[in-house]
Each structure stands twice: as structure tokens, then as C-alpha cells.
Amino acid sequence: MPASRTTAPTYIYPAQGQKIHYEQGRLIVPDEPLIGYVEGDGIGVDITPVCLKICDRAVEQTYGGQRRIRWVELLMGEKAASRFGGDYFPAATLDAMRDLLVSIKGPLTTPVGGGFRSLNVALRQELDLFACVRPVRYYPGVPSPLREPEKIDVVIFRENTEDVYTGIEYPPGTPENEKLTRLLRDEFHARFFDASALGVKPMSAFGSKRLIRKAIRYALDHGRRSVTLVHKGNIMKYTEGAFRQWGYDLAREEFPDSVVTEDDVQNRHGGRIPEGKIVLKDRIADIMFQMMLLRPDEFDVIATPNLNGDYLSDAVAAEVGGVGIAPGANISDRVAIFEATHGTAPKHAGKNVVNPGSLLFSMVMLLEHIGWTEAAEVIRRAYVRTIAEGIVTYDFARLKPGSKEVSTSAFGDALCDRLERKS
Ligand code: NAD
What we know:
By secondary structure, this protein is of the alpha/beta class. The chain has helices at residues 44-63, 78-83, 91-100, 119-126, 175-188, 205-221, 240-254, 262-268, 285-294, 306-319, 357-369, 373-388, 394-397, 408-420; strands at residues 21-23, 26-28, 34-38, 70-73, 102-105, 131-137, 153-159, 169-170, 198-199, 226-231, 259-261, 278-284, 301-304, 327-331, 336-340, 391-392, 404-405. It has an 11-stranded mixed β-sheet with strand order 4-3-5-15-14-6-7-13-10-12-11, sandwiched between helices.
């Protein structure tokens, strides 16, 4: 993929910082942790410095100088390519992300041209970041098309490594397609039109269970009430249907004391969820899109295969402010990469106009991930105050009559000023 790996960045970490590490499965975070950041292409140059500044201020404010993130700039995308002989995806950056355990990244351009896969997809595969986590909740004052957007507060766990995204596809007219067509028709008696394109949808118990396990653990750790498995098992019985079944199997095998099913609630607990337990339920994907518009407060944590999750997370995010605010993370059992969910928006790049909200709330997720929840809350409160005063970037300004449109950096400064004020 890269034009050359002969020159590569070598990272020298700031001497004052210490590495985050694991001890007996627990994340140990020093007071001055080394955390990686990738500025990102396009509007990365506008949003990333603003978000780093807000985060540093909030941490300083919250912990009175006792804690401080020691940022390590990591190169990926165009900035890496321009400095390191066309290498968009330096191996040293991947190594550093593995080593540091926690990083945040701006958006990356997928270079157009033969031989390039998406850098984001490559990153997920190389680091086996199997869960895409997208919290979606409403903040007062953010423009929303819904009447009661405040009813939305869900965290979507989307499987990131399987399903139709594995790229096992064969166009008509290729030898692979012809061979597979013959196998399916002659040996499995499958029926489909001539010259069909063929794709494979692999889904495993291993891949599904590790995702659902993460969602259940998250729900238990964060005092959530339910986990909903979203699938199309009525149609795709042995892939999506299996996802659902593996979810219930996992709950029975690994969480017998803390998870009950909807059937248990009705049949064994008189319709009431037992104290301290969460409910595991499932919904068909198409009805779920309706439910997230009509009765979103019935849902809490959601676990879903790759394609459903791709659609659902963008649709639900649009209900509460869309790309201007929706944060995300891609995580494995060890490594976590937090990222803006939008792309590089090239037409706005370098103009200091876009909304830093998506990367900022990814930063809030990062702070929560390392256990610095107080600083995360300080940023949240300052964000709500800033928006409530009508200070917004262009994208929200056009949806909020009477608001004051400001630049990306001015929005960041306004938010920093409001960090200073106690509630
Ligand atoms: P995009 O998200 O970059 O932009 C689509 C439109 O959304 C923009 O024109 C803009 O109007 C709006 N927008 C996006 N971010 C915004 C922000 N922060 N504030 C205000 N408005 C914002 O999607 P695209 O144009 O399809 O993709 C452009 C490039 O980004 C492509 O190279 C694509 O591969 C890449 N991409 C990267 C990621 C990622 O790094 N995670 C995700 C999606 C797309």
C-alpha cells in the first residue's frame, strides 16, 4: 500500500509522561499518561488543535495541575506521506498505537487510486479493533429534527471485522465468480440469476460473542438498564439469526447472575426487572429504525453486526445533531482509538469554519475510558453552556435562527472560557 517504507518516523515520547498499561486486566493510568494523537487530513488541521486545547484546559481545571496528558503526535495519512516518502500508513505509527494503548485521531482521506484500501479500515484490521462504539445522546440547544430528542441516550456497539465488510466478493465474468457459481448451483442447488455478482457474509460465534460481551460489560459498568441485539435473523437465519442466538448463549454462560432476558422478566419476575440486573433483548433491524424514532427511550446499549450498525449509528446520530457532534471509538480488548465520525470535508479544510463537536465528544469518551470522568463532565457542561448561549459553528447556525456563528477556533475559545466558570 505505501509507496515506500524505507523512511519511517521514530517516536521519542515526552520524558515526563508515562505509559498507560494493564495490570490483571485493569487499565492503569498514571497522572501524566502518554496518549497518541493523529491530527488527520482535511479539516483535521482545524478541529484537532482546538480539541487538544479544550481537553488540556479541562484536565488542568479539574485536577488543579495534578494530572496532565502528555500528547504524542503520531503521523498517518497525508502528513505522514509528505514527510516519509509517500508512506500513508507507517508501521511505526501502528506500533506506537499498540504500545500507548490509547489514541485519538482526526479523519483520514482515503487516497483515490489503485492499490489503496481505506486507512481507517486498514487501521481497524491491523489493530483488530473489533468494536465500533458510538454513544448518541442529546445535548440541549443542539438542532434536532425530532420533537423529543432528549429521549435518546444510547450507546451502539457495532461489530467491526466481519459480515459483508470482509470484502469477499466476486464480480460476474471472473473465474472466481464462475467457479463459485458452479459450486453453489451444482452442489448446493442454490438458485439465483445468471451473471450475478457474489458476496460472502461470514459471521462467527467468536466475532459476535466478543462484541456482545463488550456491550454487556459496558452496560453493567455504566449502570445501564438493557442491551438490545439488533439483527435480521428473520431473513438471514444462519448469520444474523445466529448472532442473536450467540448473544443469548453468551449471557447465559458468562453473565448468569447479572443478565435476564425479556422472557425471564415476564415469566419469572412478574414483569419487573430484578434489582441490579440488566435485560438482554433483541429486535429486528428494520423495526429498530422505527423504534429509534418513535420510542427511543426504550433502548440503552445496542449490539449489532457490521452492516446494521453502520446504517443505524449514522441514522440515530442524525436525530441529535449528526456529524457535527456524533463521537466514536474503535476498540479491541487492549487498544482504543477515539475518532471523529465524519470525514475530512475537503471543501472546508483549513478554513477554520467546521464544527469540532464530533472530535471533542470523542475526546470526552477518551477521558471516560481512562477514568478521568470528572474532566469529561466539565467539558460536557461547558459545551451545553456554549450552545445554550447560541454560540455555534456555521452548520448549527443555519439550523438555529438567532444564534451567533463563530469559527472553529472561536468556538473552542468560547468553550474554554466556560470551563472556567463553576456551575
Ligand atoms: P465528510 O464527512 O468528510 O463530509 C461530508 C460533508 O459533511 C461535508 O461536506 C460537510 O458539509 C459536512 N461535515 C463533515 N464534517 C463536518 C464538521 N466537522 N463540521 C461541519 N460539517 C461537517 O464525508 P465525505 O465527503 O464523503 O468524505 C471525504 C473524505 O473523508 C474521503 O476521503 C473519505 O474517505 C474520508 N472519510 C474519512 C473518515 C474517517 O477518517 N473516519 C470517515 C468518513 C470519510
